[in-house]
Amino acid sequence: MKNIFGDNSDQDLIKAVGNRNHQAFERIVNQYKKPIYNFVYRYLMDHSSAEEVVQEVFLRIYQAAPKYKAVKNTKASTWIFKIAFNLSMNELKRRKHYSRLIGDRVVEREMFTETKIPESAERREVMENIMSGMRLLPESQRAALLLRVQQEFSYQEISEILNATVSSVESLIYRARQRLKQYVSMEHKE
């Protein structure tokens, strides 16, 4: 019996979604829901906004799938995370406009841990310093670092997601790491 999803690659699943195969869409959602949420949440630092953006990501995937063109040597995950990144950027722009009118919102704290596990007081303090430092990073540096560390994308894939050159991505990640190290070491000394 022939597999309805081709060879089960993400690109084949997206093509099947483009043909309105609901099983393929469900598989894409199940496969990417958690990684996309983790990226968007850590980028926006707000649970409710992240949930809304993730829903919009999957709506956009469903809408854009019929026009999806697989590019040689490009993963479908790159296309999916590009959608997530663009929608996250739109949310930040909307938020900045809104905050000018109403004032800044309180941001939540978890950055790199997915679940709350008992930690030593020292580790918790370091994590809090990293989270505080992440909030201070420019958006492009924060996005590049999250895509590299959290999602383990290659520099090439990150460059496609962020619409930047590979050397720019390398620079963004380097500067983000340097700033975080400085911030954490300053906080740790206090």
Q: How is this structure best described in words?
A:
This protein starts with 9 loop residues before the first helix and ends with a helix. The longest helix has 27 residues, at 76-102. It has two domains: 1-108, Orthogonal Bundle (Rna Polymerase Sigma Factor, Chain: A), CATH 1.10.1740; 113-190, Winged helix-like DNA-binding domain superfamily/Winged helix DNA-binding domain (Arc Repressor Mutant, subunit A), CATH 1.10.10.10. The relative contact order is 0.11. Residues 1-7 and 99-118 have low confidence and may be disordered. It is mostly helical. The protein is built from eight helices and no strands. It is 72% helix and 0% strand.
List the SSEs and their pairings.
Elements: H1 10-18, H2 22-44, H3 47-64, H4 76-102, H5 121-136, H6 139-149, H7 155-162, H8 166-189
Helix pairs in contact: 1-2, 2-3, 2-4, 3-4, 4-7, 5-8, 6-8, 7-8
The rounded Rg comes to 18 Å
Q: Regions with pLDDT < 50 over 5+ consecutive residues?
A: 1-7, 99-118
- Global morphology: globular
Q: What's the order of the H and E elements? A: HHHHHHHH
Question: How much helix, percentage-wise, in residues?
Answer: over 70%
- In round numbers, the mean pLDDT is 80
The assembly state of the depicted protein chains is single chain
- Under the CATH scheme, the architecture of the largest domain is Orthogonal Bundle
CATH class of the largest domain, named Mainly Alpha
* The CATH homology group name of the largest domain: RNA polymerase sigma factor, region 2, helix turn helix motif
The CA-CA distance between the termini, in Å, is 65 Å
Strand content: under 5%
Task: Work out the number of β strands.
Answer: 0
DSSP summary: helix tally: 8
What count of structural domains? 2
Q: What composes the largest sheet?
A: none
CATH topology of the largest domain: Rna Polymerase Sigma Factor, Chain: A
- Pairing-aware structural class of the strands and helices? mainly alpha
